[in-house]
């Protein structure tokens, strides 16, 4: 029982059901990932979980639509750049605590008395940055795996 | 309820170890992951359950299936 050649053919075949379901499902997966990310400070979820849900939406597009078609939507260079930018933003948000005199990843919001920006906004910011970082990083790993050589 | 799920997890992991077909073993590992996600949810840890559902059932299974398709089968049977 040789699995390799049937595997290659199975990877390239695309049925109507798979095509339609993946097209309808992927935007909702991305939206649910964004929801988990944004409400992570109040409900179960958070940056890592939301990022992985977003990445699984992107991976569904990669697997079902083919790498070439999905790479028009999420190009390799853009994902790589977004991942680096999110990492630098996380480091910057950590250094903001040092600049405020609290320590690394301290909350600088406690120093300013503004009613417009709630103090928990720092957690939301960190969750968003971690989610973008994890989502682009995991989908970058899988894009690199799925691309032929 | 949790005990029944734990027994199912045991059965699926034993089958994943014993079965000869690599693709079936990966899918049984996905079943194990989904059952453990249910156990986490029933033990009131929805945060861990969400992580397990996304990482164990989603991304991990996809990467393992990719590995099964890209490696060759050399086996004495």
Describe how the helices and strands are arranged.
The complex is a heterodimer of chains A (149) and B (77).
Chain A: H1 4-12, H2 16-38, H3 47-65, H4 67-73, H5 76-99, H6 121-146
Helix pairs in contact in A: 2-3, 3-4, 3-6, 5-6
Chain B: H1 2-18, H2 22-42, H3 46-70
Helix pairs in contact in B: 1-2, 2-3
Q: How would you characterize the overall build of this protein?
A:
The complex is a heterodimer of chains A (149) and B (77). With 149 residues, chain A is mainly α. Chain A has one domain. Helices cover 72% and strands 0% of the residues of chain A. Chain A has 6 helices and no strands. The longest helix of chain A is centred in the last third of the chain and has 26 residues. Chain A is elongated, with a radius of gyration of 19 Å. The N terminus of chain A is likely disordered. Chain B is an all-alpha fold and 77 residues long. Chain B has one domain. Chain B has 3 helices and no strands. Chain B is flat. Chain B starts with a helix and ends in a 7-residue tail after the last helix. The model of chain B has no long low-confidence stretch (mean pLDDT 89). At the A-B interface, helix 1, helix 3 and helix 6 of A face helix 3 of B.
In short:
Chain A has about 150 residues and is mainly alpha-helical. Chain A is built from 6 helices and no strands. Chain B has helices at about 1-20, 20-40, 45-70.
């Amino acid at each position: 029982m040789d699995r390799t050649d049937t595997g290659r053919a199975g990877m390239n075949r695309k049925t109507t059901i798979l095509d339609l379901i993946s097209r309808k499902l992927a935007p909702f997966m991305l939206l649910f990932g964004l929801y988990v990310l944004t409400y992570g400070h109040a409900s179960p979820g958070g940056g890592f979980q939301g990022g992985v849900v977003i990445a699984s939406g992107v991976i569904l597009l990669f697997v079902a639509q083919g790498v070439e078609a999905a790479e028009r939507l999420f190009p390799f260079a853009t994902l790589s750049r977004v991942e680096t930018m999110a990492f630098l933003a996380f480091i910057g948000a950590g250094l903001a605590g040092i600049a405020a005199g609290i320590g690394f990843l301290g909350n600088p919001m406690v120093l300013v008395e503004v009613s417009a920006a709630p103090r928990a906004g720092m957690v939301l910011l960190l969750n968003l940055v971690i989610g973008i970082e994890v989502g682009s990083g995991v989908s970058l790993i899988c894009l690199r795996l799925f691309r032929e050589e | 309820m949790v005990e029944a799920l734990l027994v199912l997890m045991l059965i699926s992991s034993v089958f994943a170890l014993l079965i000869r077909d690599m693709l079936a073993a990966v899918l049984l590992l996905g079943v194990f992951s989904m059952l453990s996600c249910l156990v986490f949810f029933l033990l009131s840890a929805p945060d861990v359950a969400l992580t397990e559902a996304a990482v164990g059932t989603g991304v991990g299974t996809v990467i393992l299936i990719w590995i099964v398709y890209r490696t060759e089968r050399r086996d004495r049977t």
